[in-house]
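Case study.
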Amino acid sequence: MRIVTLEDLQQAARAGETRLYPPRPKIVVGMSTCGRACGAAATFEALRAEAAARGMDVVVGETGCIGLCQEEPLVEVIRPARPRIAYGRVTADRIATVLDDLRNDTVTVDRALYAMYEEPTVWGNNAPATPARRYCDPSLDGAFGAVCRYERHPFFAKQLKVALRNCGFLDPTSIEEYIARGGYFAAYKALTSMTRDEILAAVSESGLRGRGGGGFPTGRKWASAAKYASPVKYVICNADEGDPGAYMDRSILEGDPHSVLEGMMIGAYAVGATIGYIYVRAEYPEAIRKLETAIAQMRECGLLGEKIFGTDFSFDIRLARGGGAFVCGESSALIASIEGKAGEPRAKHIHMAESGLWGKPTVLNNVETWNNVPVIIARGPKWFASIGTARSKGTKVFSLVGEIRRTGLVEVPMGMTLREIVGDIGGGAPAGRKFKAVQTGGPSGGCIPEALMDLPVDFDELTRVGSMMGSGGMIAMDESTCMVGVARYFTDFLIKESCGKCTPCREGLKQIGAVLDRIVAGAGRPDDLPLLERLCDAVANASLCGLGTSAPNPVLSTLRYFRDEYEAHIRRRRCPARSCKALITFSIAAEKCTGCTLCAVRCPSQAIEGEKKGAHRILADKCTQCGICREVCKFDAVIVE
Amino acid sequence: MSVTRSTEKVGSVLVVGGGVAGIQSALDLAESGFFVYLAEKGPSIGGVMSQLDKTFPTNDCAMCILSPKLVEVARHPNIRLLTLAELKALRGEAGHFEAVIAQRPRYVDLTRCTGCGQCVQRCLVQNEPYFPGDEVRDARVAPDDFSSTGIASAGDLSAPPAPAAPAAAGLDAEEAARVEAILQRYEGVGGAEMPVLQDIHAAWGYLPEPVLRYVARRLDVALSHLYRLATFYESFSLAPRGRHIVSICTGTACHIRGAGRLLDYFSSELHLAPGETTGDRRFTLEEVRCLGCCSLAPVLKIGNAVFGDVKPTMMEKILAKYE
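After joint prediction, the assembly is written out as follows.
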């Protein structure tokens, strides 16, 4: 199937439409890595086999990340004249309910997560395709009416899905389904009816800023690359999502790979590039597979290669795999890696827009940035700029994880407060525990305390309080998380991931790590805190690349907001969160212990003794503070102090 | 008849080791009027510095600093260079030492050698100027990289002779064909090193040294370059690994939800630290910086299967599935 004209696109869209919403019932399984980790592949096979065994006429298909990762494996049922119903935690042994419901044309209310009557859409009336799908009459009652509406579900109610517009709604291995949901119409519009300057102006006007963390205005980046004359230019998609705690890029690549590739195609046309690279972490095999499929489909359809859409524009995309080095998320290190060198950053006296990959003008953007481009072209920059705050436009995807009730991938307009994101969407700390802080921006970011929860989340506000947007990891922490431990964890991470080229980062971080090590080991000294601040200052000011200059953020922000915890470690030799092993002891409350012997059996260091049905006790000299006893105790008898 | 030893101080000095420290010492001493014997175990002087790119604190190019000194050592009338030499014994006291030095043969007439390196290229036996038994150094020195090992290096035709070092283990035809198949996928692609190494790693489970040597020759890059990639990037291993790779995610979310306790489990139950393999090659333990399944933390991966919300108490059952 070659796609050259608008009619070709529309024909592909019609084919996709029947795949998306076939006339017979369809069951879709969320098959991204999170889903697979919970057994989605087995669910998929079991649904197929069981539906065949029962002789049911259904299509079983796959989709990407639906968002509410905590309820994986997620399964959705689509059938004519009924709302789209999602079921959570459908492991292979729990598929019967789904199939029973489908056969009996009903829904088991307490197993269903939500009912969707109308698909949310980012495409407005002026968009080339309007896939707002109405499933059925919203006044439906009975069992279906009793299921929580999608738009009222606390996790989804406040979200606005722009970057995640297709994730969970289409089969990522089908280009037709992507086209049916409005895909490649933006590229068609850009290539056939817009000049390069018009596209550059549109992207600038939209106010889009780089989603990888730095927040550099995308329009300005593109314009500066466009002005250099060179027969060869490159566009690069940075999919080396190294920040621990962030996985939105993986979800987009696994759930909607074409959106990123389309964005790259538009960007390449605007700046005059002919080759695109997409650099994916080696840790994301599923994303690599999905991209390989998508690129092959684009070639087959003529969307990559010579004379795309019958214009003079030629473009090709190559896939480069990372090698497990965090620093390769830094643009100059990433380019070194593509060139087949060790991924070390270089000083950027010369901008990448002038001399990047193989010395040619290069535009490098993050997955989410590229993914936003088609929407800006299709709906116009004004629409995009109407979302968000004064200086941060559009939406941002966050991975909301950690000690929180509802974990998953959320997308909200810029400027929503942390309290809304963590409290309303995430549901706050798990029952019985107290929320303490939220960490944003990965190892380059910082911890924001409860007191600052009304902060509107955008690039500048987060920087102001000593954290940063980063790629969008948002890790909630409760009272059981030791903030000194968190600072030490990030420092440890950065020590291992520092490429070692410049001394302040390589050696300075080691020194910071050594000080933190002795604080958590209970050997902190009174002047350690000023020492830490001095070291952080030196590392931040003297390092070569972004990794080093932002590396002290976790330490500085915890020092700023949780100084009392540091002081408790140093002065009183206590860990207020009861998590630093050197500063805690385990014991058993005799009055609660029933003498079930479970803890003694499970203790890996034989540190628990006691008679059957008699109170047990923990031998302090043998205990390694592993915490297994507390985990296995059914009576809450293990005390940590 | 008793031998009376002279107590008069002698005017010569022995410097052991021809790295930059030894070179500088030799030059300073020679300038002060002492006669210096500079003994170096390897075939050439220059040491580690000659292999460095930049040096602290000025980021100057290492060879720019070092090479004038190398030339000076060779030319200085007060310095006698002893390469392929090892100090066997040392007698005497301050001011009057007697040193026994064993020097291995080089099989090259140094007075006539110009260091052109042609003999290495023409040699029918594929020996390379390596130091057997010194694996790390071995891989860092490129076969064709004479400039980086100092001025006296060119004379060293083959591996030091006694005891005779085996020729670099070659690949059998079948293995060579496998490598060729991988190389062909990236024919003419710029920056092919990374994808080639990744595919080799996937096929062999690690990066075997003979394969790396073969690839270096075929891609016409220095072996040191491949070694650098192999040690820079976390996902490459130079040693064979276990049948099942257990990757424990130590991303932030996993960290605060107990990844450390999973690592503890492996160290206390299987005596396995990250990077290590069990004696029976059943498991290799690895730490991975975020698998991107943060909502299911803590997460671990065995082979391609990902397990979410794992507790140490569940480990025994999970591992039992893998033989």
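Observations recorded in class. The CA atoms of residues 559 and 566 of chain A lie 7 Å apart. Residues 7-152 of chain A form a domain with the Glutaredoxin fold (CATH 3.40.30.10). We will return to this complex in the next lecture.
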